[in-house]
Write a structure and sequence with these properties.
Largest sheet: 3 strands, antiparallel
Number of strands: 7
Number of helices: 2
Structural class: alpha+beta
Shape: elongated
Strand content: 15-25%
Order of helices and strands: EEEEHEEEH
Strand order of the largest sheet: 5-6-7
Radius of gyration: 24 Å
Helix content: 10-25%
Number of domains: 2
Length: 122
């Protein structure tokens, strides 16, 4: 049997659904849901996710770093690994610049290597 995990919604137990109602007749209570497959690995529903974000979202963003200025995609950092298909239905791998649309060929090994980066021209 798979492991069951509790929903992390702060008020999950207050929603009156039949699957949250637990206990013997005469002493039933509504309880936080337990699931083997949760939304975003933590929540039983979007309602519980939204409850959590309303309650803790600002603290989480402040903890991990709130943006104070816009991020910018420039020609230098717009390179992304991607693939396409040629006329023989073979996969071809390339680095593509999202701004200039320039493409540079990659091998399959380079494409699959998560630490491989594009060598900039000198």
């Amino acid at each position: 049997m798979s492991d069951l995990t509790f929903c992390q919604g702060p008020v999950c137990h207050t929603y009156t659904t039949q699957d949250r109602l637990k206990g013997m007749k005469g002493s039933k209570t509504y309880q936080t849901r337990r699931r083997s497959n949760l939304l975003f690995n933590e929540f039983c529903s979007m309602q519980c996710y939204n409850d959590w974000f309303r309650m803790f979202g600002n603290r989480a963003i402040d903890h991990f770093g709130r943006l104070t200025e816009p991020k910018k995609l420039t020609e230098e950092n717009a390179w992304q690994k991607t693939y396409d298909w040629n006329s023989n239905h073979d996969m071809i791998y390339v680095y593509r610049n999202g701004i200039t649309k320039e493409q540079r060929p990659l091998t399959e090994a380079q494409y699959n290597d998560t630490s491989y980066t594009l060598n900039e021209r000198g």
